[in-house]
Amino acid sequence: MSVPTILSDDLDADAVTAILAARQRAVAGVRETDDRPRETLLLFDLGGVAHGLPIDCVRAVAPLPKVTRLPHAPGVLRGLVAWRGTVVNLFALAELLDHDAAEPTAMIVLRHETPRIALAVDAVSGVATVLRTDTGPTLSTLVIDDDQRLTRIDPVVLIERLLPARLQEG
Known about the structure:
Blueprint (H helix, E strand, L loop, with lengths): L12 H16 L9 E9 L2 E6 L3 E6 L13 E7 L2 E7 H4 L9 E5 L6 E5 L1 E9 L8 E6 L2 E6 L1 H8 L8
């Protein structure tokens, strides 16, 4: 079966094909390709505010287990938790970000070997792919992408704030 060539005044066959393909994508609701760099974030809530961490720095998400409090611990260190046979330091991210938060129900375990780090969060809400922003080393950056508005947490700066310099290599 052959398809007849569509010709128009001042347009060659390639131009007509490109126009028809663009119209078909518009009718189908497909967005034009976007060459800007994107990244996938794990989304979570702290006090009703949406935040995201790059998914490649996340080891696991789990319900918040029983927390063993430590005497004289720094304010952001909630305590220790047992997770998969290891002891993990649980940090209150809301306190570090100076947010009011509900009682945490979940923890995000980071890909940091020694010491193991988990973040107490109100709830984990899913994943999203957003435009990558290169704003330099800052703990949190506002990301507005399409209909999403959230705060991206930089894991490198986060670990620098949570741990003494001698423990940051993981």
